Amino acid sequence: MNAIALMLIGLGAFALGYLFYSRFIAGRIYRLDPEFRTPAHELRDDIDYVPTNRFVLWGHHFTSVAGAAPIVGPAIAVIWGWGPAFAWVIVGTIFIAGVHDLGAIWASVRHKARSIGTLTGTLVSERARALFMIVIFLLLLMVNAVFAVVIAQLFTRFPESVVPAWAAIGVALILGQLIHRRVIGLAWLSVFGVIALYAAIWLGQYVPVTLPDEFIGLGANAQWIVVLFAYAAIASLLPVWVLLQPRDYINGLQLFIGLGLIFLAVAVANPTVVAPLYNTNLPDGVPPLIPLLFVTIACGAISGFHGLVASGTTSKQLDREPDARFVGYFGAVGEGCLALAAIIACTAGFATLGEWEALYSSFAAGGLDAFVGGGATIMNAGYGLPVTVGTTLLAVMAVLFAATTMDTGIRLQRYIVQEWGNIYRIDWLTRKGPATAVAVGCCLGLAFGAGGTDGTGGLVIWPLFGTTNQLLAALTLLVISLMVVRLGRPPWFTLVPMLGLILMTIAALLYQLVDFYRQENWFLAGMDALILVAAVFVALETGSALLRSRRERCS
Amino acid sequence: MKRLRQWWQRLNRALETGYYTRHRRALTADIRQRHDALMLVVHADALGIDNPMAHHMLELKVLLADDFHDWHRRAGLDHSVLDCTRCC
To answer: Residue A318 phi/psi, 5° resolution?
Structure first.
């Protein structure tokens, strides 16, 4: 199998999905109405509610949802062979993620742009809403821990990426000041920013940075994790415009450039996919494909996090209701493309099957290393980019995505902790500093507790992160399905994916629970049990809500 | 050349819209907070807070009169309790 064929089949399937399936869903199931007055017009306040051009809104939606997760998931999942990962990304994006993202925007737009969390309370039950909040908190907790581990691993494996990754913060800080002070237009600033970033990437190869093997009892990985959380804590306390906003912007540019570079290299070099279609020579300890594949690749196939963005900010800015198809469905397609690029890099960027198998020696051993190494090899073959520069470029791209997610994640968690302080009248918890310390402390505990310090163990929690993400997606699909049922339209297009997700999530959690129990990893077993309880409640809520709505329709 | 410049301007505007779209709420909240602090300083004397700069704030009161209504509404008062500025 050559990589161009894989790329064309993937992109072709996405194109067909967008042209036909999304048209069917938008026209027949959601029935998007061009005459409908969207909340952006009805409640316009020029703060949250602003009618926005659909291309700009798509850019906002896509860059908000795409990050390191659609790279890490497929990079781990190709251990079962490229076939299952490829099929799940394609089928997931076309039949689940697109329908979910588009549906979340539609559901929110039809309810004055309320968030899916609020809609869960209104349409399902108050219990389900509380459940939703718990799942979100767990998701944030895990996303921060996982990404700290991911970045630490990249820094230790690719020391050339350290200087450019921190230099990117400098570039963002300068960019933020220049934009804030309106020194020159953003187009020129973008050009200069990208040049500065890529110059730093080029320089990185000459100044690799490694931390000492041991410092006050902590290994290099653990030291990076501490440094990263210290950074995230400080960054999350800064005003948005100082760092987060310009960083997000640079990441957006990086996303398009990175995707373009990988697909261009594949088109020119046409490497052969050396990984097997279905891996029969699995290393010891790799969990079964079913159900673990479906939680290992969450973002890139279906991710509940998208529903939060779709119903949080996107729905408030939708100019016309039919725009939701382009913004939501095509946003999911964009993320699918990123996952597709990751699959190709991780399976075609190797000279021989032996080399590939040596890297994928255990579950979660390949991961981002394979993406960075494989992608750099393809870029080298495509247009002669030196491998060291290629690895630095891709490592920095992944680090920047993950670090910005951490920054945002800690910020959101701080809001939740401050909210708790308000609810329970704990005065000190309502303050910025202590609330951030509590948020960082929880995440740090999880990162260390999950074995992130020894370099490989940290990604054990990746599938757990996937299960929480899928649970959130199932809850969103439940809300959409209930709306569809109440409108008397066929609910199967949202109901079947939702039931599949709940089933796979519960199966994956049970499998992992037994696994953690056998390993006597009580910390992760406890986490797993907690998510399992949430999953069972989601299933029960789903059953009761569907029965209730059926009864209502019959009576 | 003129067309190229127009295209560049359009690109600039589109990028700026994209730049602000994502964080508009946080940015507005930040601006508002600073503006509220300014309003408090300007109207401090009317609230019974000693302000040695009160005399110099008189000019600002006129300039900020239009924002007064929004400010007291945001502070949770449907009607202004201050009689210094004419409002609702």
So the answer is: -75, 120
